[in-house]
Amino acid sequence: MQSEKATLVAGILMILFLFVGDNLLKLFGIDVGSFAIAGSIIMFIIGMEMILGHNFFKNEPNAKSGSTVVPIAFPLIAGAGTLTTIISLKAEYDQWNILIGIVVNLVFVYVVLKSTNWLERKIGDGGIAVLRKIFGIILLSISIKLFKDNIINI
Description:
Order of helices and strands: HHHHHH
Number of helices: 6
Helix content: over 70%
Strand content: under 5%
Radius of gyration: 16 Å
Largest sheet: none
Structural class: mainly alpha
Shape: globular
Number of strands: 0
Number of domains: 1
Mean pLDDT: 84
Distance between the termini: 41 Å
């Protein structure tokens, strides 16, 4: 059930940002580069969590169980990199083409999230730990690239 919720929340965020993201950022006086830098810092911290095994982001003690979906949906699935990319794609492609791309992406995300239990059974706890560290390094690399590319433009 969590995979459905995370996919749905991420999908809503991406689609909303497709249609109102530019205006929302302008409303707060934020340029796309600043948004991308802020998101890259969050992605960096999450990557460090994955590698070091320490949690910097903690759930609120009195939060409802549905709040556990949010750290998966945002910033991991529909994070600053994704939302910045959506805004950038609007300059090149029609909104409906981007919307189709978002839906196809969400189908892949859903399949991956649904198969995590199967994957855990096949590769075990040790394999999951290794994958977590590898993907943590990849996430760190993406966050540094996103930061570097956008800090130059500011």
